[in-house]
Specification:
single chain; Immunoglobulin-like; 11 helices; C8orf32 fold; 636 residues; 3 domains; alpha+beta; 38% strand; eight-stranded mixed sheet; 36 strands
Length: 636
Amino acid sequence: MHKTSSNLTRRLAPARSATRGLLLTILCVACVGPLYAADPPDAVIELWEQHWTLEGDGCTVYHEKKHVRLNNDRAYGEFADPRITYNIDVDKLEVSTARVRRADGTYVEAPDYAHVAVSPNSSAGWPAFANIQQHIVVMSGIEPGCVVELEYRITSPPWTKPNLAADVRLDHQYPVREHVITIQVPQGTSVVPEILNLPDGFPVNAEGALRAPGVASGSTRSRWTFKDLPAAPSEPHSAPWQSRCARLVFSTARSPDAWAATRLGLVKSAADESDLITKLATEWTADLDDPSEKLRALQEKLAATFNFVEFDVTWRPAKPRAASEVLRSSHGLPFESAALLLALARAAGVTAQPGLLVADHVWNDKAPQEAFVAADVVVLEGTNGLEIWDPHRGRIYRYGHWAGHTLLRPGPGGKVAYTKLPAWTEADESRCSLRGKIAIADNGDFSGTLALHTSGLFVSPEGLRTDEGQRARVRDLVARLLPGAKVDKLTVRTMTDTSFEADVDIKSTKPLEKLGDCHQLGLAADAPFQAEISLPLAHSQRSNPVYLAGPCDEQIELTVKWPEKWSLESHPPAVSKIMGQWGFFEQGVAVAEHSFSLTRHTRVTQRELDPAGLLQLRGALNELRTDYGRTLLLKP
């Protein structure tokens, strides 16, 4: 029968008391909020102008003006040393204003030696991108209360950019008093700007298709003025800014199909032939006949030997280099590595096509542009169905980061075909279940069996392709239940693209550790579902919802048996059902003669947890992460 040792209970009581006290304090602070008036923001953007112009000859001009008041040195980094990135080979940069208005109203101009040229970290060291340069202005006279003023213009030669396009965030992590945007294009040029995520009723001063003074003859200009945009700070585990922040998107591309066809055509044209490409393709696919196996061999070899370079799309050239040149240089951008993989595939006799993956929360039909491309891929349509191959990351499935993307690829009749990899939206699609029993021997060793079931976002087909991959996945999930257990025998019952089930024999890596005269069996601090669903469990206030990989359902059932002469001194607590719009969490415990059973059910039904819902779930999880919340004490 269950007995309680007052001595051992006292050992764990302080931890339990401290945990509950801390949780109560957090609840009070989080619910009550600040007791004093908030300090002024670290910075305020008083004026922010962004102007895009497409000239009749194809030249493009970007003109930016920004005045930022700095109230605290925490904000100095971004504004005190602003960086302007451009292509020194073709672009012309003109800095017209770079100064600081100090708190007393005097101005301090940036001296000549304060203008410094460097290479961006992400492109530095790669010969093909040595022309990308950052112009840094080291502002003088910085102090709390000053205003940093910067104005510059970048002019690009005719048609060095295929389209005039941008995806503009309207707000900032600091308040914006006034944000002005203009787009000027030749008459007859199609451009359909769209404003997204702006709260209903937010005032916008919009002037469309102006023929105003100062506008070049034969051009039209649209202008928007947004005032008093509140701060939108980023918090850990927040949704991407394109989903939660006000944005304006525009493009002069004729249509999404025309843009995609042109973009895919660039990669296809770059996939040229060369003796070296043919030689490597032949060597890397020797003794392989299946097109899918050939493509896998090419991708794996390329990933192991090639240098993948990624940086801001606005810095990238309009066209990829030829695959033969990219191979010789052994480094390239995403669309260049995709062209190289496509060239290798064709040299190996594989009929493949280029493809684009775009994130659904970013994509906008009215303003297709390079900034929307999440990955350049190679697509194979064969006996195994549609396969998507990323040169760097391997085969892509509807899993993890890629759920919620759409594939664009060449379709019949010159059209573009769209294939969705839908986001996980229902809890029942993504289940993670571990059920089983373990028995503890007289010497403190334990062994038992577990039945594991995962589906949806918990299944990575590429990671489960090999026996070692399957064992690694099982080891990870078992460690998130019993960290002292190792996988002894694994029997896979089901494995598909969306389901993985296995029976697992486990045993302890060493006898249970002792706490005084008791053995202790510790459960894991993090639950199995947290392998894919990351949560911010540190104690902090937040204003943004927590963005999750998707809704999910986790169930744990574990029975622990011990020798007849042993007694149970302490065990994890039951947690009454906690419910909210986000779902529910509960934990039940049952003590019988020589056994203890724990059942836990976590169900999250929404893609986003609001701060109140996070507080509920976080409080329960954090209590069970303490020593008291996850430890069985057994006295021989």
